[in-house]
Amino acid sequence: MVPTKEGLVCTNCGHKEATKIEFKEEMKKKPKSVAEGAAEGKPIEETMPTVKIECPKCGHDEAYWYSQQTRAADEPETQFFICKKCNHKWRKY
Predict the structure, then answer these.
(1) Under DSSP, is residue 39 helix (H, G, I), strand (E, B) or coil?
(2) SS3 77
(3) pLDDT digits over 68-93, tens only?
(4) CB environment 65-80: b (16+ within 10 A), e (fewer)
(5) Of 69, 58, 73, residue with least CA distance to 91
(6) Rounded to an integer, what distance in angstroms lies between the CA atom of residue 83 and that of residue 67?
(7) Is the torsion defined by CA of 48, 54, 58, 60 positive or negative?
(8) Which of 22, 25, 40, 74 is catalytic?
(9) Which of 49, 54, 83, 47 minimizes the C-alpha distance to 66?
(10) Alpha helices in 22-70 (DSSP H)
(11) Catalytic site residue 26?
C-alpha cells in the first residue's frame, strides 16, 4: 500500500482505502549542499567552506577545503585545499 492524497492505494491491484492521512504541500527547505549550489550555476568553490591556511605555491592565506575518505575506513580522511587566489590544489593526510 502506498499513501496518496486520496488514501492508501495497493501497488499490485490498485485497490483504494480511505484514510485520515494529512499531506502537507509545503516542505521545509533543507540547507543547500555543494552539489545543489553547483546545479544552480554557481562555481563549486563558492559553495565550499574556507579556512585560513597558507598556499604552498603562491603564499595566499585563504583556501577552500573539503575532506574525503581516500583510504581504508579505519584510516583518517584526507583533507583537500584549493587556494582562493591561484586555484592550486593540495592535500593533507
Answers:
(1) helix
(2) coil
(3) 888 888 888 888 998 989 989 998 87
(4) eeeeeeeeeeeeeeeb
(5) 69
(6) 15
(7) positive
(8) 74
(9) 49
(10) 34-39
(11) no
For the question of residue 46 being annotated catalytic, the response is no
Within the chain, how many helices (H) and strands (E) appear? 1, 7
3-class SS of residue 36: helix
Whether the predicted pLDDT of 20 surpasses 60: yes
Q: Which of 17, 61, 75, 77 is catalytic?
A: 75
Under 8 Å between Cβ of 5 and 14? no
Write the pLDDT tens digit of every residue in 21-49: 555 554 445 545 555 555 566 666 667 88
Residues 6 or more apart whose CB falls under 8 angstroms from that of 67 comprise: 77, 78, 79, 80
pLDDT at 88: 92
Angle ∠(55,61,62) on CA atoms, nearest 5:
90
Q: What does the pLDDT read at residue 27?
A: 46
Fold of 33-93: N-terminal domain of TfIIb (2.20.25)
